[in-house]
Amino acid sequence: MSLSEFEVIREFFNKKELALDREEVLLGIGDDAALLSVPSEKVLSISTDMLVESVHFPKDAAPAQIAKRALLVNISDLAAMGAEPLCFTLSLALAKQSEIWLQQFSQGLAEIAQRYNIALVGGDLVAGPTAISIQVHGLNSSENCLRRDRASVGDLIFVTGCLGDGAVALASLGLKTHLGDSFKINREEYSINCQNYFNSIYYEPEPRIEFARSCGKYIASAIDISDGLIGDLGHICTASGVGATLFVDEIPYSQSANCCMSKPNLLKAALYGGDDYELCVTVSKTDQEAFMQAAESTNTPVRCIGEINDNDRICCYNNSGAELQFHNEPYMHFSEEIQE
């Protein structure tokens, strides 16, 4: 690639398809820092995630797919806060990439930016092993921010969409998981439709922005499911000083996951797999009906899978009332080496 750092920024990123016109953005790409105006009745939500080649996406992944996933998983954090996407910064470490690669990456990024009206306002570009760091900014009403630390005993636990797809998709792409040797796809049942579904769900997860903003008034606490249900619900419980009961037979799965995974592996994927980017929320019983109606108005499937209690742990039960014991752990960077 013959272009310099600043030529790459000007050619592929400082353009109207990415540097969207938002009245809150007073100054975007092109200076030492962006300038943002936050309305007096709003607060700013900020989150960041980094994606690394061969950990979060295969080395041969299409550049547009990489860009879409990188921005979408960050926007999912804004959904978990009930925030409206505003703007983002992009920092890229790139090995030798062609101008065609950059053009396709830029186009994929622009597609998501326009879909969620989130403007690129700055970033950085360096040479090195391929990694992507995005910081997103969103706007919340100062009186209606979703948080992890507001769950109360008696709240019902709901999840959006289907769980486990992220871990199954990771396995389908040939990337390592932390779920052990037995976590394998049944290739005899793995159709081209399944492959297309998991590629789509992995590279274009759907941040539940509209759902969170429409249902926020009825939600006590929320988190996006990036590290597995047990781990992320555990963050809610720790922050709120509560425990939880999960009814694992109520966990929703996609038809594709049901077709190509055993039941034990489905449950393992949902509880410990991560990469689902659905929301786990708690709702008081008095708000349950209004919450479900609001969710339906956004065409978001929700399922009640448990209840908050005053224990100091998460207990899992099946429909027969038997408590289940597991020995897996949610995904954590810097933990023991990923199981082969």
UniProtKB/TrEMBL annotation:
The gene is thiL. Pathway: Cofactor biosynthesis; thiamine diphosphate biosynthesis; thiamine diphosphate from thiamine phosphate: step 1/1. Mg(2+) 3 binds at residues 32, 77, 224. Reaction mechanism of ThiL seems to utilize a direct, inline transfer of the gamma-phosphate of ATP to TMP rather than a phosphorylated enzyme intermediate. Mg(2+) 2 binds at residues 49, 77. Substrate binds at residues 56, 275, 331. The lineage of its organism: Bacteria, Pseudomonadati, Pseudomonadota, Gammaproteobacteria, OMG group. This is Thiamine-monophosphate kinase. It comes from OM182 bacterium MED-G28. InterPro entries: PurM-like_C_dom (IPR010918), PurM-like_C_sf (IPR036676), PurM-like_N (IPR016188), PurM-like_N_sf (IPR036921), ThiL-like (IPR006283).
